[in-house]
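Hi R.,

Here's the chain you asked about this morning:
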Amino acid sequence: GLLSILRKLKSTPDQEVRILLLGLDNAGKTTLLKQLASEDISHITPTQGFNIKSVQSQGFKLNVWDIGGQRKIRPYWRNYFENTDILIYVIDSADRKRFEETGQELAELLDEEKLSGVPVLIFANKQDLLTAAPASEIAEGLNLHTIRDRVWQIQSCSALSGEGVQ
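And the predicted structure, written out as tokens:
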């Protein structure tokens, strides 16, 4: 997951990595971030603006920008594209009726000039739910196999349990 992309990106640890954490509202971005930072996840409310956290992981300093995913906030995402090293895109795997919307948002992000060539890690979140679509089905539905201009990976996870997050 994240660490394999980090290792490809930066040969020497002790470097700072700027990570942009995006996805639709209620996908689990903030829970994922708190899980990465080993923080309490019992009281998470929708992100109105953004959260920034610095997380030490395997010798890397990860500066993670978690931006709210509500429709009214999404136009502001582009204000955070500059100098992004890795894009993490979080999908609620159980919210099938929004797959088209989330796919559209991801496609638009991948077309952004300022994110050109930036590796993308897609977290197929909420795999702890019985209704969750498997990562392979999401990858197919979003036509991820057509991404040719960057390193990409899709990873099953449950931000709630922490499974698949590291």
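The chain has a mean pLDDT of 92.

Let me know if you need anything else.
M.
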